[in-house]
Amino acid sequence: MSQKSGLRQIPVVVLAGFLGSGKTTLLNHLLHHSGGSRIGAVVNDFGDIEIDAMAVAGALGDSTVSLGNGCLCCAVDASELDLYLDRLAQPAAGIDVIVIEASGLAEPQELVRMVLASEQPRVVYGGLVEVVDAVEFDATRALHPELDRHLALADLVVVNKTDRAEDSERVLGLVRSLADRAAVVPAVHGRVDPEFLFDCRPAEERIGQLSFDDLHRHEHGPDDPAHTHLHTGYESVSFRSGTPLDPRLLLDFLDSRPEGLYRIKGYVDFGAADPRNRYAVHAVGRFLRFYPEPWKAGAERLTQLVLIGSGIDTDALLKELEACADGAPHADERGMWGVLRYVRDEVAEAHGSPGRLDG
Description:
Layout: E1 10-16, H1 23-32, E2 39-43, E3 58-61, E4 64-66, E5 72-75, H2 81-89, E6 97-101, H3 108-117, E7 123-133, H4 137-143, H5 147-153, E8 156-160, H6 168-178, E9 183-186, H7 212-219, E10 227-231, E11 234-241, H8 247-255, E12 261-268, E13 277-284, E14 287-294, E15 303-309, H9 314-322, H10 337-340, H11 345-350
Parallel strand pairs: 1-6, 1-7, 2-5, 2-6, 7-8, 8-9
Antiparallel strand pairs: 3-4, 4-5, 10-11, 11-15, 12-13, 12-15, 13-14
């Protein structure tokens, strides 16, 4: 997304959960319902690789196989992760999103740290998704008390097998109490709307990132211009403003974003605070990053955002974003410092910010 570096960054989603929770089922669902997006699946498992498509896929060598729909799957050890991120992020691979399926006994925090520490400039952290088995939740928690910590770290929690649990509402409530502001969504057979995790390609092939218009067409029907339900348990809201946003007020909003608000994507106009650039924003869970991009000559200067979550108050979110508008012709010279904390270091330094990437 960053025009500064000229690179399109690929989100890397870490998919975790204890044995039997349904991680592989969820990954298979994503692979078969990717909406035309090409997925790079990285399987970090010490046992049998269960990706069913791999049984009929043709091997490409080096533990990488083609899944036949443009997706690729790699079986790797944790020490090889950065090597495979680099390989899958090469433009020739044509990958749109990378999903790392952690071993059922893996420590998800370590995989997240490895993604955040990756020196591969073409990737960006796409969130930690923790899958839990609603039927076996109490037993799993008793056997693996570290599950509470995993839930607190997650950006999205998928409570799977809710159709088989006698008290799924109790489990959902308990999981929500343990997850730290993460979106918590129920699922059956690992069926999660892919748009909740990554941007699906539009029906017509295009080159580069999805535009806001692509996102808007995909998410909104003609009879519901404000917001719509992506799926049961998912809400989406679109925000547009021809008035620039105040960077301090927007950071206050982002720092206090409510429980259940999983993803924020789009572009922000900070007006006089930085008249040269619009800022692409990528937020998933508590992770946040901005990317300055020069305004194109003659382009209409708008803020355009899409917010996706579970159990969110869309009307309240719109009012909070509207309150961030600032039509002042002059800018506080330090107003952008908070934003630049979430920009790649070399860009922040060019703007004279003392801050560095946080998240």
